[in-house]
Specification:
Layout: E1 7-9, H1 11-21, H2 34-44, E2 47-48, H3 58-66, H4 72-81, E3 85-89, E4 93-97, H5 104-116, H6 120-124, H7 127-141, H8 146-149, H9 165-175, E5 179-185, E6 188-193, H10 194-197, H11 200-203, H12 209-224, H13 229-236, H14 241-253, E7 258-263, E8 269-274, H15 276-280, E9 292-294, H16 305-312, E10 333-338, E11 341-351, E12 356-364, H17 372-388, E13 393-396
Parallel strand pairs: 1-7, 12-13
Antiparallel strand pairs: 2-4, 3-4, 5-6, 7-8, 9-10, 10-11, 11-12
Protein name: YcaQ family DNA glycosylase
InterPro entries: AlkZ-like
Organism: Roseibium aggregatum
Length: about 400
Amino acid sequence: MNSSACTRVPNAQARRLFLQKHGLCAAPKGPGKGEDLSSVIDGLGFVQVDSINTVARAHHMILAARRPAYKEKFLKHQLERDRLLFEHWTHDASVVPMAFFPHWRLRFKRDRDWLIGRWRNWRRNGFEEKFEAVRKKIEQHGPVTSATVGEEEQRSSGGWWDWHPSKTALEFLWRTGELAVCGRNGFQKVYDLTERVIPASHLDVRFDAEETIDWAARSALERLGFATSGEIAAFWDLITPQEAKSWCQAALARAEIAEAEIECDDGSLRKVFAFPASLETLDTLPDPPARVRILSPFDPALRDRKRTERLFGFSYRIEIFVPEAKRQYGYYVFPVLEKDRLIGRIDMKALRAEDRLQVRAFWPEKGVRMSKGRLARLEAELGRMARFAGCSDIGYDAGWLRDK
């Protein structure tokens, strides 16, 4: 990039643009269902799905942070009844607006090519024949789960390369677009033939690779506000870094995008691309609301941990797989946002059998003073979290308010 042609964006404006693009710069209000919920998910691009239910599952917390009126059944309706969303991979398992489904055909093809290249062991174990058998079974008898399709087969505790043949078949057929997730039993995926799940208005649409590359890069940059080519590629994880880089070069040459320098929290500058229209909004971006919001660790605004640290000076690590004695904070600790600042992290758990949200600890970030007003805002958010988790009471461990 030619830095002399770059727009320099102060850190405060960069934070606000980023939060505005992620639905966190406006007051959290709205019904959180129907068209309103669709607009939230479309604006984000996807919502990551995760099984951990310490307070509520990640996908529900992501939506509730933007729409406090949201209820879990609203997402289920859009996925399973109205077919407005489909479930597949971005950087991880996610729910995605159904209108984007045709672009996932590029991923299906690439996943097929990659997975077939790793079939040597599968062929020796009869997996190839199992794929067709599983598809036939679903075609004739309807939707299945991994538990029901492979009841007679030996199970493994290893990764998906070690799963029983029928479960591997399900994952292969799903990853390559022949099956789709039509619902969940609890958190277990239910699979059916893609043509019985995806509405024909989306199933019959086709794009070539270049069209999908252009869509993926363009839509990622729009939702990020500003990004490097690598960050653009990583957003959907549909296209390669080289494809994203080539798109940026071509779009820059056509003056469709512009160069910019983003000021990081530590004062350093990072070169990025942005749409001119996004840069033109910098002076008119609203102040984020003063209320405190507790975010899921998998919130789209926090997905890129390095970006979060550069922009907000907030270093975050999931410690689920860290031995308890070596954890700095806790098993599953939630980032806490106030205005445009990540002010700390909180360890809490919904003890549903006791009808209580138990707060174990809150660690403020360096330089954050827990004034009476800030503490009151945090406690108000904990009240909202308790109600969302179905708890009528809040408990606090002794010494829960920690010094940094």
